[in-house]
Structure of Oxidoreductase:
Amino acid sequence: MTKPLIIITGASSGIGAAIAKTFGAAGHPLLLLARRVAKMEAFGLPNTLCLKVDVTDRAQLIAAVKEGEDKFGPADAIINNAGCMLLGTLADQEPAEWDHMIDVNVKGLLNSVRAVLPAMKARRRGTIINMGSIDGRRSYTPHRVYCGTKFAVHAFSEALRAEVAADNVRVIVIAPGAVATELVSHTTSQALIDAHYEALNAPHSILDPQEIANIVLFAYQQPQTTNIRGIVVAGTGQVQ
């Protein structure tokens, strides 16, 4: 039996890339969305459409979903992985960095959900997997605004889950701790980057992206009548 389409945002590297390869290996056609198309195409995955999309552009995102569904059929799941983390304190961080995190991590996720939700409700089937964070469960310096955006992801996801439960649509939040990705690399302060990794210097404190991808696939592969509402996962050695 042909497997249904899976949409993945932020699919060009890190967790998104690992998820793409994992779902591709499981036989799903894929719609991969990110700003770096060449990196996604380099995966060489079969039955895959790679499109340049900025999740903050609602119209661009909706058009991409339509193109993917026209090619592969209705999306059975969207994995909202696109995100950014710019470390900084409220007193010192440039407000433009706040805006960027809110636009990508919150508004971008809302845009992605809106692009698939009406059709999922009409079909009475679908899965929305939102990438939260341990930082969406507690806050600490210098992650103040980033934590706020991830708290928003967790709160929105729970509210959405209750809204669509009667429509047989699942909403799942995956909340990783530290993962070996380039997420923190865009922070403008090298001192903050160094401090971030110093806090995670215990053995087995940083997960590999593949470990998160395995968990995402596990949650998705449960029966549609079973909704694993949230999974919090971190390296055993991570204290925070």
